[in-house]
Amino acid sequence: MTIEIKIPSVGESVQEAVLAEWFKQDGDSVQKDEPLFVIETDKVTLEVTAETDGILKILVPEGETVAIGTVVGTIASVAASEVKKEPSPAESEKPEPPIAREKPEPAVTPPPVSPKPTVPAEVDGTSIPLTPSVRRLVAEKNLDVSKIKGTGPGGRISKGDILLYLEKAPAGLPDKLAPPAAAEVPPTIPDAALEVRKPMSPIRKRIAARLLESKQNTAMLTTFNEIDMSRTMAVRTQYKESFQKKFGVSLGFMSFFIKACVEALKEIPEINAFIDGNDFIYHQYQHIGVAIGSDRGLVVPVIRHVEKMNFAEIEQAIVDYVAKIKENRLELADLEGGTFTVSNGGVYGSLLSTPILNIPQSGILGMHKIEKRPVVVDDEIVIRPMMYVALSYDHRIVDGREAVTCLKRIKEFVENPERIVLEV
After folding, report:
1. What pTM, to 2 d.p., does this model score?
2. Residues that are catalytic
3. Which of 221, 215, 223 is nearest to 352 (CA)?
4. How many domains does the structure of the chain reveal?
5. Which CATH number does the domain housing residue 400 bear?
6. Residue 299: which residues within 8 A CB-CB, separation 6 or more?
7. pLDDT at residue 222 is higher than 70
């Protein structure tokens, strides 16, 4: 029995995908639910697994763009016991039989070498010894001592004789004194040979198109503020361990900011609204998109109805999305329906940036790195862990007053996390 492997549908708006990578070779044995290949669309990446045990036949190579529903391979179904399993590393690394070592021959100690006797210089047919310092200078300057007149006892050549000879030397200096030859210049490599051309992935194309559309079709403006993270950091440190034990997930800063955004958006609904033609669409719920970087580009999965969630549920949702992205299990539905976005460039070390709107949304919050800075508190200069935050908004629907008020409310909630719970 032969099973066809087809490109699955990931949403009505997606008509084709790129077969990005095969995890198996043609003719390999595969097992049920084992990943076979990964596809990329303009919105998501997705792994496709085997429906049964069998032998794989690849019909479409990786890198090809294919329509949804295209048959890209087959699996010749066989019994599970007949599928050849890949040997484990422990099995594949069998110890080799011992090799008989040849008996080493006894080492032969070479006879001691007597140092060469000092070779005297030949001057006028007479052998005249040179002092060590003179011999070194002669060797360094590559001189012919037969041309140097010695003034020392018995006609010996002194160091002064060498220096005098060098001063009076004609234009034809010894080789060692000649200027060094110009270093050989390596052949010039054309710039084109140092360039690598790679096609844009569907996700990268989609990101580029969306960002360009956002810049061209919105009246985007950004307002900035800074947040004293002292209180939130203290609360997180105090309850982090017990939070982990109770809920099985770590307590991060993102949940504080998302909860703060929810409360601020309730007060400033324009930032949680869309523009549709000549109409404003206001949402009575908060679907918060969380920007997450991946190897294939930035994706923004959406946490739905955050207004009904607690801190643990928010943190768990983020962890689940990160796992789905790493395992290429993110679905198109995970990316749809967001009303506001939070992006944390601080995890990459960004101190300040201007986030771009994720259309059709009207607002996005940019978080940044926490950095200790001197600030004035009660007329005193103190060191506090500070974070710059940026709120980009569509000025067509959101006025500056609403944007500044919204960011100020987010600042107040994060600096006093108790207010998030009390909603005051």
Report:
1. 0.65
2. 395, 399
3. 223
4. 2
5. 3.30.559.10
6. 44, 203, 291, 292, 325, 330, 335
7. yes
